[in-house]
Amino acid sequence: MNNKRGFTLIELLVVIAIMSLLVSIVMIPLNSARTRARVVATIAQASEMNQAIIAYINDVQELPGYDANWGDVCETAMFVSGNFSYKGNRPAKGWNGPYLNAWPKNKWKKTYHWEFIGGNNAIPTLVVDGVSTKEAEMIDKIADDGNLTTGMVRIPREIRKSKGRTIVSNVYGTRKVLGFYFDGYGMRGIRNDAHKAKGCSVKKL
């Protein structure tokens, strides 16, 4: 006769609860490690693109143009292929790229976006799409001053006057983005020249 007793329902539930707890304990450091890896990789990518943008400016003697649409068509043309028109020149006069092997995707599987934020006194900005506030704070703490409203790494915001009031609003609304501002990020005094940049017209191959 087999006298072995099976698990009761309560015992099974206890075992499942313990296993779930152990899995969650293991996953916390794994998730934390993934977050740190994304943060460090983003800073490294931004540094690489910073050097590419500076090289472009040194060659062309102009700020890179930009495309208001999200995507990497314009950025790829300017920094990788040279297949774009700029002030009637194809490619831009002095262009000596490629400056990057490819325009990279960020670690949130979205594209980086080269943009000008702030209207007539716009600041050239490398926008990181998809980053959470927590991760943005970590990036800022490592790469800048630890304050997302000041310095070279910020949540992109617009400041405007309306009926005597100062209104501060997020440029991209509820979209989770972080901006590497190029006013001081390797290129001093470039802010006042932002109006020189024209939109990017991609050349048809």
TrEMBL record:
It comes from Candidatus Nomurabacteria bacterium RIFCSPLOWO2_01_FULL_33_24. InterPro entries: N_methyl_site, Pilin-like. PANTHER family: GENERAL SECRETION PATHWAY PROTEIN G. This is Type II secretion system protein GspG C-terminal domain-containing protein. PROSITE patterns: PROKAR_NTER_METHYL (PS00409). Keywords: Membrane, Transmembrane, Transmembrane helix. It comes from the Bacteria. NCBIfam families: IV_pilin_GFxxxE. It holds the Pfam family N_methyl. The keyword Membrane applies.
